User: Fold this.
Amino acid sequence: MEPVRRVAGRMAPLDLADVDTDQIIPKQFLKRIERTGYGPFLFYDWRARGNFVLDRAEYSGASVLVTGANFGCGSSREHATWALRDVGFRAIIAPSFADIFRANCYKTGLLAVTLPESQVRHLIDLVSEDASAEVTVDLEAQQVRGDGFSYRFEIDAFARECLLRGLDEIALVERHETTIATYETHRAPWLPTVN
Amino acid sequence: MPKTLGEKLWDAHVVRSAEGEPDLLFVDMHLVHEVTSAQAFEGLRMSGRRVRRPDLTVATMDHNVPTKGGFRAADELSRKQMDALTENCRREGIPLHQIGSRRQGIVHVIGPELGLTQPGMLIVCGDSHTSTHGAFGALAFGIGTSEVELVLATQCLPQRRQGDLAVNVSGDLPLGVTAKDVVLGLIGRTGTSAGQGHLVEYRGPTIRALSMEGRMTVCNMSIEWGAKAGMVAPDDTTFKYLEGKPHAPRGQMWEKALDHWRSLATDEDAAFGGVIDLDASKLEPHVTWGTTPGQVVPVTGRVPSPRSETDERALRYMDLLPGTALADIAIDRVFIGSCTNARLEDLRAAASVIQGRHVHPKVHAMVVPGSTSVKRAAEDEGLDAVFKAAGFEWRNAGCSMCLAMNPDTLAPGERCASTSNRNFEGRQGSGGRTHLMSPPMAVAAALTGHLVDVRELL
Assistant:
């Protein structure tokens, strides 16, 4: 995975809570067997209804999505993070994320950043008034910075390290092969096997 | 030190623990289906890796399988996706319950049926409703595709330790009130994210009195209030369900396993990070009115006034006005199915409401058993005949209209009484409107043509 240190760019606001992954990428687009090519289907149903905020010209090319609480709830589909990445988002800022979605973001190299409700509100108001407002999401400094503000965010230290260094998590786990093999010899004898 | 069930399960699976890092957990069973696995297998291939423990990995086809008209996928992409799973399983030596086979079914229905879901295990699957398996006193949760790849490669998963929450349910369930109403009532109270970062243990006399099927329904919807996992301590109900299942231990091993399983319950003095109390005796049948499972009220109630923009949006999508009596809402479709409510007991409870009556002429209703085994068992006791005589369609097993990846979908504007787990916008078909409820409530809606309190029909 490519290292992710900071994301700098314009924001796009999606001022809604409880946005579920069925909205982010509807199920009819989960049949592809690739990890890319989901961009055209991001928020497909909402876009099809017209006047969708992310389709406004002024938000085209935004790299930071600012949105409401419990973003990414529901289905575990990683296609949701793939689709967000495919259209150019590199960071998402929200008051909270669903657990599986946040894990998927990190695996996809998307910065899922949690800020208090009031600070997220400030960002949404800011970009709603001035679409050209830029922010920097700095993973190294753990800050979201813009003109006249700097917000500190907390993030799991290990996830941060993996993102900063672009680590292959499978390789990290494989380093513990001996420990895993030892654990395997101690498993209860009644545990099921399938072949 | 006294421990909770969750702590015991967690600790037993720690392969490696290091300061500042997530715990490395060992996965006892990895369940795989066609929709979230193809990219993971592809990743393995690209990096020259193999599946570490094909003997601890089992696959089925469920999400986009057709439920009628033979076993050929309705579209090219679905077929490709199922072919990819067949090929991946063949190459890696993973047993596959493919479409048309005796044991095929929804991944969370067949695991328990096969006895692959046992107390004390850690089970993962690329599917958020993996929490279902927690009903057996297992630690079970959904993962994304990259994590599926990681588990395929290493049989392990790095995870941060979670908090512990207890949900204490007491009081007898009134007539017509089911496990589904317990969990819908709970989510109505907690909202859709209160469980985030927590392992939830459902406890108390009401939970103890539930069958395994009922416990699975409750644990299944843990994810709908954001919990990492939901579980119930194993007891005689669990053991009775498991004994004799194909992969359950036998003979002396069974006795050994029982001793261990009995030690899993939360210790008396163990502390939870939070406790939620629920009085089941005051519960009524519940129905969702909005587009999240938390937007739910008793069927005797009315569509509430919006308290947020999310509520207003939901009302617009659902085409409902505040103050409307739930019982005045007409429906077009009924779906009885899904990993939440399509086990044999659910189908029995549903069929028992029919009592010779017929599906309302304006309603199209269908029953989709959770697995081929459930279908067969239901047919053996004549439930299919009861449903068919009443005008329900009787389908083959699969996820079907719970997420509508196969041809079973709502048309735009159609309103559905559904026993599934999510009422998100478009979940059952673009523009479709979903009301979640229990199987008896869904049948009552099918018979009357509108949302109705099933107790009026009993």
In short: The mean pLDDT of chain B is 97. The longest helix of chain B spans residues 76-92.
